[in-house]
Fold:
Amino acid sequence: MGLRAQVRTRDGWAVQHAVVTMTDMTGAQVLRAGADPDGVVAADVPLVPGPYTVIVTALGYAPAASTALVTASGRAEVGTVVLARAGGVELPPPGVWTLDPAHSTIGAVAQHLGISSVHGRFTDFGGRIEITPDLTGSRVEAVIAAASVDTGNGLRDKHLKSPDFLDVEAHPEITYRSHALTPAGPDRWTVRGRLSLHGVVRDVDLDLTYLGTGPDPWGGVRAAFRATAELRREDFAMNYNQVVQAGISAIGTTLRVELDIQAVQGGLPGA
Structure:
């Protein structure tokens, strides 16, 4: 007899601090119980057969209400209750998440000759994401080795590493540190931070999409994100250009940054 329920996020993770309240049709409370570390609510309280209202609440999540029918045995099986983040926005469970460079890509796209695009990426980087219970307090930081730029062309990469562009000897690291996080949709966020590039520090916003969380083959838990930003080269003192016929610049004035990120809960395996 009593109540049985499981409380989960939409990704299937337990909501450990959930509270289930049960009221009868007059609105009188007949049961109140908290979830265990597995998100399971079990209360052995005698209940009179009939319909009841079940309300599930948890800090940081929108409450969920449903109707449950108590059978002649005095038992109500509520099943799995899925809670959505308050405001309809989602991020992974709170804690520190470490970027996995082996399964992540930091890339940039520049226009070439006004008719096509050149794609590049950085192969040496690291970082961490800290998700806080109050999601707006979450933080992102990343460090990229500027000399790891790779566009698939050795001569072009050598030029990009020169003082005309990244000047990797004088500025070996590109860093990004966030200072604010604001929701922009059900799975979307605006990350506001400071980018240090080519010796210049500027405010840069990332348009972030959270793709979900799940277990990996190595016994860990991973979260996936996609993010984009647009940079103006002149904002970072990279003014080199070559004008070809008809006044067309060889290299576009803007860069589109594209990030595909996997982050591992805690640290990387073997780290």
